[in-house]
Queue: 3 jobs
Job 1
Amino acid sequence: VSEPNLSAPSLSAQLQPSSAKGSRVQNPIRIALLGFGTVASSVARILIESKPEGLELTHVYSRSLARRKAEWVPSSVTWTDHVDVVLTSPDVDVIVELAGGLDPAGNWVRRALEAGKSVVTANKKLISYHGVELEKLAAAKGGHLKYGAAVAGGIPVIPGLEAGLAGDRIKRIEGILNGTCNFMLSKMEDGAEYANVLAEAQKLGYAEADPTEDVGGFDARAKLSILMRLAMRLTVNPDAIVPHSITEIQAVDFSYARELGCTIRQIARAECTDANVAATVGPMLVGLRSPLAWSRGTENMVVLTGHYGGDVVFSGHGAGGHPTAVAVVSDLLALAHGSRRVVRSSAPTALSAEFEVPHYIRFLVNDKPGIIADITVALASEGINIRAIVQKPGYPQKALAFVMTVEPCKSSALKRALETLNGKDYLIAPPLDLQILE
Amino acid sequence: VSEPNLSAPSLSAQLQPSSAKGSRVQNPIRIALLGFGTVASSVARILIESKPEGLELTHVYSRSLARRKAEWVPSSVTWTDHVDVVLTSPDVDVIVELAGGLDPAGNWVRRALEAGKSVVTANKKLISYHGVELEKLAAAKGGHLKYGAAVAGGIPVIPGLEAGLAGDRIKRIEGILNGTCNFMLSKMEDGAEYANVLAEAQKLGYAEADPTEDVGGFDARAKLSILMRLAMRLTVNPDAIVPHSITEIQAVDFSYARELGCTIRQIARAECTDANVAATVGPMLVGLRSPLAWSRGTENMVVLTGHYGGDVVFSGHGAGGHPTAVAVVSDLLALAHGSRRVVRSSAPTALSAEFEVPHYIRFLVNDKPGIIADITVALASEGINIRAIVQKPGYPQKALAFVMTVEPCKSSALKRALETLNGKDYLIAPPLDLQILE
């Protein structure tokens, strides 16, 4: 890991008179919302209800004006269904992009920054793939790019990290970054089946018709790559982070997890040592006494481990209109107050999926003598020590689920060991292998 | 509660070119440490080991030079036992004040700010009593005052609050802000007696020879007043917050608390409604499923409840050399990077200790018939409903401890009800009354 290597303004800029000198804003910054969905309308509501000084909502772009135009928004606000009107207007200082996705949102953000405007966005996908480039563009054109809402919505992880943990070197990130998966897994912990929980999540609007982005770990890995850049100062392409889906998790796994004093959560995890940078996203076992097990429902939680400061835990509502809108409005206030981000350079890095942790391996077999012997030989061939073998009674012999846990071993070694079992006639399904966080 | 009413710079200052424009620092900010105790030497260590760009340790003031001068500090650093040397030196940009207390630290900070220097401090006492005045002085002289380490040490509550929750209106603060009390109470939860735990805390350096500042709630109330100013934008004199000591808590209280599904923590609590601003510090019952019960040992935890964003939880190491030093170095980096605080005005407020919550009341009596009747009449006279009466077997009749819990009622009403019991011959000690947090 490289030494801290910070960009900073010149001394004269650093120690210029404080903005607290009593100068009230004469001209508030003029804000245009791109989109008027849940988060954007919450942003509008806070701006209108709370009237934070220095902020003025002036434009709303929405493709479906007739349906969306809200009566409680003052008539001074200009509504338009032409995005060009706000992107090019000299009467707009800051664009708030809440449409999400790479396209057309990325194009809008680029055009706004090109025009010298500042941008506040909650778009984790855009920032995870193009954050470095967009920050450079903003800096070159004299604008600012802020995205405090892109990770963990209403929980100030990004501001806390940038402003309060900049003095540390973060060596580990463990996060519950996807509220949909956390909702589903904590419901399954209480006994519900995957299919029913997914249907409920869809009904409640937590999950999309195609839930792959959430359950497959793609959403969480985008957020993890943003945190890695800010916390570890490593530029990581989210595609390089291997995601594991939660769809493999069954009721039997919660039952065995509990037997082991654990539950199961979708965890986004990155670790940075002198020798290795590793990152992954997927379902993992977490001890019931770990903070990560406290997080239930759609909550998010992030545990950052610093070289100097140890563990810091952030938790709260990671999504939802109002919490996410708080993060957006906070970013707008920072812009209005001339508060600058502590921008720290990041460097590209090679990424592995190599962790050295204990594992939970669940086998589903058509029982016959010799299976345990077979598996233990495979594990021993890679020098992997077994910690426990747990087989609860009551499963049918033709579809018998049992679990082995192993002492800390390299992910790659375990993978090789399990591959030697490929094609064994007793395996009804490939073994499910989950990291155990201790 | 007043509307947000923000100080902000003019538009031209707000949207000036970003500090991220690639300009590396030519002249790092020159830092003088006042003091070389645990936190200050950790700050020096981070500055020397991590070499954050833009920061240079140039001076150390220490009263006991001969004893303290550290070999691992480069010879380029000037050591002095004359504080004037650093306060007046044109070669020092930022003073890091880690001596603590009001005097002489306050004088040093004032003189540094008067000289146009910036100050980073972890001094909660100074900031709680004089923060508003010192911030005005800093602004008037063109310097900056930062104190991210003053509350909850290594946990970025202050930066998270200022940068990430500025867009919300915080209506409730519940915090474990004193690590010493948390260490002692979590040891007592495990069965230890107060006197033994205090001795252990003193031996470990967590508690002073006179522990009043910690156990009496004075340290926590200073921190609470700082959080109230930043989160609720209310200027509160810490002396106006009534502290309750943890010394009244006995083993029997943990036993009864557990019976009620709770444990006991020292909580700093403030609530801000349209009608009332209330704050207090003292031991309280917290549900075992509440985040506040998870915090053990010297950890700190803060739960902020926003009007829009709901609950946000921060936890981690609230004290200790390295974690606190991380907060100090982060403040220094913010100064070096030209990052300005989002300074929001605060207004003085009248403060009450009036909460409307359920209560735990523990009686210690010389048992005789009619006591419960007597107490219930007293409570009924104030319209207070009893929730539960718990009397565990095994206590001697002449010193019988039992507990009543009551439904949410005003603190003042309960106080009046209990006062009517003053002088009752069966009372061995005044009833112990604790808030129950739900």
Job 2
Amino acid sequence: MVERRGARELPSEGALIETFRRAFATKDPRVRVGIGDDAAVLELPSPLVWTIDDSVEGVHFDRRWLTIGQAAGRAFEAALSDVAAMGAKPLCALSSLQVPASATASELRAIRAAQRSAARRAKSPIVGGNVTRGPGYRFTTTLLGHVKYPVLRSAARPGHELWLIGPVGMAGCGRCWLERGATPPKGALGRAITRCVRAWQEPRARVEDGLSLDGRKHSAIDVSDGLATECRTLSRQSGVRVELDGGALRAAFDPELLLAAEKLSEDPLGFALFGGEDYALLASGPARTRPKGARVIGAIRRGSGAVLVGEGRARLLRGGHDHLAS
Amino acid sequence: MVERRGARELPSEGALIETFRRAFATKDPRVRVGIGDDAAVLELPSPLVWTIDDSVEGVHFDRRWLTIGQAAGRAFEAALSDVAAMGAKPLCALSSLQVPASATASELRAIRAAQRSAARRAKSPIVGGNVTRGPGYRFTTTLLGHVKYPVLRSAARPGHELWLIGPVGMAGCGRCWLERGATPPKGALGRAITRCVRAWQEPRARVEDGLSLDGRKHSAIDVSDGLATECRTLSRQSGVRVELDGGALRAAFDPELLLAAEKLSEDPLGFALFGGEDYALLASGPARTRPKGARVIGAIRRGSGAVLVGEGRARLLRGGHDHLAS
């Protein structure tokens, strides 16, 4: 019904929900009732992990630098990343969409397509949600997952190695490039910049990597706000000292990050520590249990606080991202 | 930490989450990990019902007529009402809060207190959530519940009685009174008006009534948008004709609604059909299975559409509330 209306005319709530119901239809046997009743009805294993995340236009995303489909996809991946960081297998999702009066049918199609793709990648059907109007787009995603031994932020222990799983810094570098508004050159540098920009525009939650962790041995947190903040959180919640080794972290950087950051005259370490939105996993565990793909970037010690070592004198990690700061 | 700051200064995200973590602490043995990790970890029975609902300042509520605590409480009850309408027992909740830059510490305290009260009444601890800033307050609540035989919108059958469980029209009448801005008089009329205003400001989801329904025999939907819309939805989703009997509905009206509507020179039937936000339950089932407290207000027939009978000639029910309409 959306298609037959003018491009700038919003379909009715009922018609819009119907388009989502069709787009998100699933044959998953765990879904007894999907979109369309007062609530979804599900047959799920226990224990469950459960998270909710929001992405608000003008706060978490800016449409100068993202298509609306990219914004919708990122919002889903950010919630999914919380499930990944618990070491859990995603099961299903609800999506709540806030739509501004300026919304167009093609924007709504792009949102549907992006959410459907993200849900399929995660094998997590969207089984319900809500639609409201409001002063801008807003994507709220709540996900359920299953895990036998949840991987907690409070489980880092002295003697653990500190691990990075997945690249960090690229998303922050990509966003910085977009903010400076320059056109990427051709060649290797251009490809490096494009990859950083894509890392920010189209992140992917590390679900498979999360499943390689085990809550009886490992701790983990996802890198949404930058490594500085995540190291401090791990330290506080586990009651340990987190030592991040700057040299080891630099050695883990993607060569394309080095290239793109150099062109911006920025230290890639800054993007890794404070950029955020990478959705890598910061984890810890005994050396003998290190999963494939995990890079050692430091160690867990007795004590408190998060410190950067191996870059001259040890420095306390501060700063990072406060979602309420203006 | 909130208390020690200036009244108009917003605490940091971490400090705010800490106040919520303390306020919502629970000893519920089903909650293995509550607020503070990437996701909550829960041991829950299956099948589950799962819903999400949003309440956006300037769209769903207006602070001229509601305290911020009332707005937060209503938002929780609206989501809870979806669980009730499935005949499910609520289990636990996540709460996502959008906070404007103008927020004060006392507003945040009132929100916490209202959400904690609503969660306690529902025996549904708030086990996690999210905090973001944005252009106004916004409350998003997602709830999980447990039900053996979910009560569906698609289960109305020809021969069923149509039931109303709980009062309708009072919330719409109360809101109308607030919009007109008059001061309620003293005496019986004043008390009637105050009760209608309270019905709108402080609704209560009908969880116990929902539990009296059985998905093998009954259909149900909650009255959030007004009886006209809910009758049409029941008709469409069950493939039946819903006959709403105006006389029987009028006989079910609370005497205080009649008094308050008369003073406004409004037909209370209009508030019941189009007012919404009552969170009564509209249900159906065979006469011999009618639960205590259910009033017969019509019948389910073969055919299609929702009609109002017993008020002169039968009329198709139209109109109601579209959440996307401006």
Job 3
Amino acid sequence: MSLDSATHEQLRQGLEGPSEELRQVLQRSRPADLADWLQGLEDGAMWRVFDCLDTEAQSALLEYASEELRARIVPRLGAPQLVELVDELPTDEVVDILAFAPAPLAQDVLRQVDTEVAADVRELSSYPDDSAGGIMTTDVDVFPPDARVGDVLKALRKDEDASQNEGAGVYVVDARRRPVGFVSDRELLTTPIHSLLSEVMDPNPVTVAAWADQEDVAQLIARYGVSAVAVLGSRGELVGVVTADDALEVIEEEAEEDFGRLVGVSDRQPTRMPVWRRVAQRLPLMGLTVLGGMTTAHILDWALGSVDEAHDTLRYVPTVLGLAGNVGLQSSTILVRGLATGEIEPERRSAVFGQEVLTGTLIGCLCGLATLLIAALTEGSPGAPAWAFGNAMGVAIAIAVAWSAFLGCLVPTTCDRLGLDPAIVSGPFLTALSDVSGTGFFMLVAHTMLGAGFGAGG
Amino acid sequence: MSLDSATHEQLRQGLEGPSEELRQVLQRSRPADLADWLQGLEDGAMWRVFDCLDTEAQSALLEYASEELRARIVPRLGAPQLVELVDELPTDEVVDILAFAPAPLAQDVLRQVDTEVAADVRELSSYPDDSAGGIMTTDVDVFPPDARVGDVLKALRKDEDASQNEGAGVYVVDARRRPVGFVSDRELLTTPIHSLLSEVMDPNPVTVAAWADQEDVAQLIARYGVSAVAVLGSRGELVGVVTADDALEVIEEEAEEDFGRLVGVSDRQPTRMPVWRRVAQRLPLMGLTVLGGMTTAHILDWALGSVDEAHDTLRYVPTVLGLAGNVGLQSSTILVRGLATGEIEPERRSAVFGQEVLTGTLIGCLCGLATLLIAALTEGSPGAPAWAFGNAMGVAIAIAVAWSAFLGCLVPTTCDRLGLDPAIVSGPFLTALSDVSGTGFFMLVAHTMLGAGFGAGG
């Protein structure tokens, strides 16, 4: 899901007009859309837009900004401006955003903000990023069991920060701040104001330890269908709360991470990375695939020995299949998930297609080069490397892998155009297609480059 | 995430005591836990527990029950009891639950419930299951822009159904019921009661068409970090609302679906299926892999011809790699995701391990048998099938595939025991390991069974 083209056009026109017009367009835009748009702007235009926003809109923008955009904005803000922004943000976001400021600046900001906020921020920083403590917010409203609904309503109307706790409800705690109940916002709205909290509360609130894995927290929220989970410190006391929208982010993040790992691509938003970084990131595991393929070649050599050069090429087929299979699966997974999560907008489709094929081709060339060297040095007699043979193997592998990357992009894109779910055909179907055609290409190239011995006896 | 063992023990003991004790234990349990526990009980015990619950608890239980459990309960309830349950449930759940009742019973129930509820249920049933309309609830509170916060509070306190709209907020609509603003529950709690809704509302509510894909709706909620999305009918009028917890379910569901498709396993909760169904489900795509492998074998034959029986075995290596790779990836993906989503509880680990290895072994045997037949019929001279050769290929493939399934289970389980994230090593690393060792096993078996010609010239 991304910026729709109408909003994009409005924003672009706003940028070309006077500041007053720009302000009006900005006011109608959602922070998530603004963050997306700003990320694509040059520094000059980006700062013009940022300065047109009031503090509240700036803090909302930072909340939705990618790490990349935060890294462009935060280090260049002054301490007074950061202090104002920090006041508007929930504490969990403050931690993430101050991480982009140089250490002296961050310290300076924490000295100037409210001491309570500073203490909360320091506490949150002490938990690992991917723990319940790392994703919780400390802004949570607590009341004793004998408070009445009317008292809670009055207290919430007075508390300025309470309006930030979207969906968090209020917790009922005992004298040692251990949660004994939960009352949702909706419950507060619909029960008579003279009721005691102990009468209307859910006496069995869902809780989790602060050091629990963020994935476990998200699972709890999904399992029990609750809007919030209470996070407990080491003595069972309430230290914060994780809400359903945090859980949504975690589940998306962890699923994308697992998809990436399954095929050996280790980044979120892989379609937004420069091609050289994609190659660099995937190359180590592809190196492992080359090594595996070469080990297999030696097992086959040990089992069967060498008859002629043509049959020697057969031992390289596992390397071709391994590399082509992996590269094809990477391209197709990136396209399938990118189309499913909306990371790939309609207008970026052909660009992503081209970049992925280029990435696969480069990986194919590098792995082909590695195969060339290994084959030339191990297949020849000692002191006389078999360059012609190695050369043929290298070129054949490069071509088969590039072809597989192309297939890995073509199949999901075509499915999507035809209105089919690309996920259906991107697994074993694609692998079978890529195995057959990859082997065909490989043998064709080997045949053309080596000539002799092919077709004998058939 | 599943039923913890302490809760499980309490429930088990409650079931062995008198009804009064059972009732007390049940009151302390969460509906999601109860649903999990009931699923594992015999019919007699299950009905005893169900009858101990009051109508509210029964409806909550049905809300969290799996399709399997719903199918056991719903058809055996009488119309009067179903009418009571339907009154307690949000309309989107009513549709899903009545789907398990025989058509005459469902019609009977709809005739007896409130006409408005019945109309809503009929409307919801008209949208596809996986569309915004299919997952929305029609229970939504709407007010005109000139209503005051105090009026809203009064109206919500009077409306019995309002307490069910957890996290949905209220929508501000114009005379034609088109949404012009959104006010969250928290906003209602924290703004002065004399404010006009038009002053406090978010004038830019996130909306989606009723026929939009459920995945798009979930993406909108995740992107804009909102607690609810308004669903619009064909004339732009508000027909319902999808909340963050619905989105959480959709995102989990769609990610699992894509994972399954990526490796050719097409069911949610694959570790809870009987082994024969897993085999039946995965076999068609594995048949495709065998066909792909055999086509590759023919390409190699065309390119190189036959030298001796030992070298003929080489042409079957792509089939081994394809099958072993797919089966290993299926087992490892099922274990990795099962461990990540909590579908595999600690006490079920060894059972799931054994079942997956058995599934892989059975698939290996069936695909080995197919290879045996194809190899025997195509490799021999016309009229004299090469049974000994086909036999060797079949057995070798069955063993290599079973070994790969074992590796696919062993690697993630070991990682998990060692405290490492199983996802890291289950992709290309596992494929390389399975390729090398699978080829080794294949050649060893072929060597043992065929004997002659191996090791020549090496």
